[in-house]
From TrEMBL:
SMART domains named among the record's database cross-references: Ami_3, SH3b
Pfam families reported for this sequence: Amidase_3, Cu_amine_oxidN1, SH3_3
Naturally occurring in which organism (per UniProt): Thermosyntropha lipolytica DSM 11003
GO cellular component: outer membrane-bounded periplasmic space
GO BP annotations, alphabetical order: cell wall organization; peptidoglycan catabolic process
Domain (SH3b): residue spans on this chain: 36-98, 102-164, 308-369
Keywords (A to Z) from UniProt: Cell wall biogenesis/degradation, Hydrolase
Domain of life: Bacteria
Lineage: Bacteria, Bacillati, Bacillota, Clostridia, Eubacteriales
Stated name of the protein: N-acetylmuramoyl-L-alanine amidase
Keyword Cell wall biogenesis/degradation: yes
Signal peptide: none
Classification via InterPro entries: Cu_amine_oxidase-like_N, Mao_N_sf, MurNAc-LAA_cat, N-acetylmuramoyl_amidase_3, SH3-like_bac-type
Length: 817
């Protein structure tokens, strides 16, 4: 059944809604200009609002890939028109449809206002600086209609800019014109040395494309390939270049540098416009047409790179903001397990690249990834529980306008570079065992090794250093630095190890690889308050450590794998109101920490955003209210006017939700539990009321039952959610309980229903963040999947789901006795 493209909040076309909106629009927005641009919706289901902001009413929804006409942009919101509906959509959820540029302009004024229309009476939507270049879509009376670097349409006064052509383009914004001829006829020199490529330069749309990795590494840059986003991340000193295959908007330190021909993959190598490749790190490019020769002059030596990880990884649904601080708006959200390249760091925030956008994420909610070696986990097909109206199971109260639909596909990958016979290459690894630097030679050689104080110098005669030439790893407040240079026919590597830090050296690979390792160790131990009623112990290690935890009476035992005592004392006497003392013992495979308390009412263990601070949070027995340990609250999702998801055949989610919930409750009552429901018939109950019921009853657990939906009809399977963020102590202290409850139920659902296991996940759902007891939200099956829709109409399948949920709850309850 074909889905409708526009729907109102109750799923029907309402003349009243449209009428009210048309009245409102007289004061909120101007009509779309006659020459409105077009864009495509990128979110799976996107809210249309009556004005430019989340404080305006939702007047309908629109689906992914729908084309709309766009007008002015105000504060990150774009005016749109589709059929007889006019409204506003968040600008980052629209992808402008390309229009051919007739020519380009360069801003000649010190700065120029960009406006929403051709005239000073139109709103200012941005500013352009002197020298910036923009493609012109249309020349009007004294105004240019341009496409900005973010893809939006704007207008600039013609007297503030100058027309340019390819021959007059500034070097930084144009590609090298390629003459007619065969690709192999072009020679590329770097600092006078002829470069050789395993994939030769080629001509595309009149531009010369060259292998990016070969030239960047010859300049001393580190090059990483991200197959999940088809993106090349290159770093040299403090400069980071991000180029996505097929995009004409690469970035240099977060700033877009437009190119007219996108990068592409040819025979496993990334080829990109020569001018951009040569100048991205500050080099200079010259073209000699008579000899078909390109000469690149390297940039000055790179300064030390900033002390931040090359990537970060999310552990739960994470807000990505437009600036470095919570005062900035949420632009989008990253799912749990996403790995994002880091461009910069500022005041506890990381600037990251995602989907061609530059955004910011708090350092304390992500984990650093120092070497991109692990694969990126599969992303969810869609955000859970897409409702047909108010998006009931919102992932965050401040970001409900997009329900993302990431895709997975096989993409060509570049082979990792290995040292050739006469080459030396550097690599680094930061993992739970510590920091490891490897110096790999293309053949077994015996380098000259000199130790002077804390400096190790390796000299490889007749060898040449290739690729990465500088490594800087933080060791507390100090740095572990490794620098490599080529000096008169030899490669020289110098390692500076911080004073007082234990390190080891050894060889691998039959003598081809020299290894320097700083083993993981405890750097600091401290006690801090946790909320108003608890305390926590913070154990800081050099790198993120694996750990296990066992609670026995009033003691908590933590085992840290692959860790040495380092700077830790063997005993800390804190004498706190909850934590009395902590002792450490060195074992063969790590360190054991024993936390002696004055009584444990609740505890939880987690890691900081950097991953190297283990936080053990404990509250005393007096701080934990006594729950009714036999009472279970079951919450059938949606109801009444809130239908929930609707299948292609019209089957509403609220129906199986209620039937499964009532049957699960009947089974639990038969097992001797007291069960209460948030609804027992087809009535509407608000999200706040559902949580309040459970809190007033002081239940042992709260279980919300839902079914899933996606724009991808192939999506299928079971997933279960909990929520226990570290920045909410009253929830985080229940992390283990909430996760255990979710795991028990998920395991039983998968076992009994024999559907794909989509896993246990965290999400900021209203009923999970507002309940005081362990709570979970189950997504039993996908109504949007034809097979699972038929299963959900089967009484047998729904009974099996109810039995699985009841069994999972029962197993959890028994595990806590």
């Amino acid at each position: 059944m074909k889905l409708s493209l526009i729907r109102s909040r109750n799923g029907k076309y309402l003349l009243l809604t449209i009428f009210l909106f048309l009245i409102t629009s007289l004061t909120l927005a101007l009509p779309l200009p006659a020459q409105a641009s077009k864009a495509k919706v990128t979110g799976s289901v996107v809210n249309i609002r009556s004005g430019p902001g989340t404080n305006y009413d939702i007047i309908g929804n629109i689906y992914q890939d729908t084309e709309v006409e766009t007008g002015q942009t105000i504060n990150g919101w774009t005016e749109v028109s589709f059929k007889n509906i006019n409204g506003w959509i968040r600008s980052d959820l629209l992808s402008p449809l390309s229009e051919p540029a007739s020519f380009s302009i360069r801003i000649t004024a010190g700065s120029a206002n960009l406006r929403s229309g051709p005239g000073t009476s139109h709103a200012i939507v941005g500013q352009a600086l002197k020298g910036e270049v923009f493609p012109v879509l249309e020349e009007l009376d004294g105004w240019y209609r341009i496409r900005t670097k973010t893809g939006n349409i704007a207008y600039v006064a013609s007297f503030l800019a100058k027309k340019i052509t390819a021959s007059s383009s500034p070097a930084g914004n144009a590609s090298v014109p390629a003459p007619a001829g065969k690709p192999g006829e072009i020679e590329v020199y770097l600092d006078g040395k002829l470069l050789s490529f395993d994939v030769p330069p080629m001509i595309d749309s009149g531009r010369t494309l060259v292998p990016l990795r070969a030239i960047f590494e010859a300049m001393g840059a580190r090059v990483e390939w991200r197959s999940d986003t088809r993106t090349v991340i290159s770093t040299r000193g403090e400069t980071t270049v991000v180029m996505t295959i097929g995009s004409t908007s690469p970035t240099v330190n977060g700033k877009t540098v437009p190119i007219d021909v996108p990068a592409k993959i040819v025979n496993g190598r990334t080829l990109a416009p020569l001018r951009f490749v040569g100048e991205a790190f500050g080099g200079q490019v010259e073209w000699e047409g008579s000899t078909r020769t390109v000469r690149i002059t390297s940039p000055p030596p790179a300064s030390n790179p900033a002390a931040f990880p090359p990537y970060v990884k999310t552990s739960s649904l994470t807000n990505l903001r437009t600036g470095a601080g919570t005062s900035f708006s949420v632009a989008e959200q990253a799912a749990a397990g996403e790995t994002l390249p880091v461009l910069a760091a500022k005041e506890g925030w990381y600037q990251v690249s995602r989907g061609g956008k530059t955004l910011w994420v708090a350092s304390w909610v992500v984990e650093p990834v120092w070497e991109k070696t692990e694969s990126v986990p599969e992303k969810p097909v869609s955000e859970p529980g897409n409702s047909n109206s108010s998006l009931e199971k919102e992932a965050s109260p401040e970001n409900t306008d997009a329900i993302k639909q990431p895709e997975q596909e096989n993409k060509p990958q570049e082979e990792p570079e290995i040292a050739k016979v006469n080459e030396v290459r550097l690599s680094r690894l930061r993992d739970d065992k510590g920091i490891t630097v490897r110096i790999e030679a293309g053949k077994a050689v015996e380098p000259e090794i000199i130790q002077s104080g804390r400096t190790l110098t390796y000299t490889f005669p007749g060898m040449e250093l290739k690729g990465l030439n500088y490594i800087k790893e933080p060791v507390g407040s100090e740095l572990f630095e490794v620098k490599g240079v080529n000096e008169e026919g030899k490669a020289v590597i110098r390692a500076e190890i911080p004073y007082g830090i234990e390190y080891q050296t050894y060889t691998e690979n039959n003598g081809r690889t020299r290894v320097i390792t700083i083993p993981n160790f405890i750097m600091a131990v401290e006690k801090k308050d946790f909320g108003t009623t608890g305390e926590r112990v913070l154990i800081t290690t050099l790198t993120e450590a694996e750990y296990t935890r066992v609670i026995s009476g009033d003691r908590i035992e933590i085992k840290l794998k692959h860790v040495t005592l380092g700077r830790a004392s063997r005993e800390y006497r804190f004498g706190g109101k909850v934590i009395d003392r902590v002792t450490f013992t060195q074992e063969n495979d790590g360190v054991t920490a024993v936390i002696q308390t004055r009584g444990i009412g609740g505890s939880s263990t987690g890691k900081s955003g950097d991953g190297n601070i283990l936080s053990v949070m404990i509250v005393g027995k007096d701080a934990v209210p006594v729950r009714n340990q036999n009472l279970i609250v079951i919450d059938p999702g949606h109801g009444g006017k809130e239908t929930g998801a609707i299948s292609p055949s019209g089957y509403m989610e609220k129906i199986p939700n209620l039937e499964i919930a009532l049957e699960a409750g009947r089974i639990l009552k038969a097992k001797g539990y007291q069960v209460e429901f948030t609804r027992t018939d087809d009535t509407f109950v608000s999200l706040e009321e559902r949580a309040a019921m459970a809190n007033q009853l002081n239940a042992a657990v709260f279980v919300s039952i839902h079914n899933n939906s996606s724009t991808n009809r192939e999506a299928k399977g079971i997933e279960t959610y909990f929520y226990a963020p570290a920045d909410r102590p009253h929830l985080f202290i229940q992390k283990d309980e909430r996760e255990d409850l979710a795991t028990y139920v998920q395991r039983e659902l998968v076992r009994r229903l024999n559907r794909p296991d989509r896993g246990v996940k965290q999400a900021n759902f209203s009923v999970l963040r507002n309940t005081n007891m362990p709570s979970i939200l189950c997504e039993v099956a996908f109504l949007s999947n034809p097979e699972e829709e038929m299963l959900l109409k089967s009484d047998y399948f729904k009974r099996q789901a109810a039995e699985a949920i009841a069994e999972g709850i029962d197993r959890y309850m028994k595990s806590r006795r």
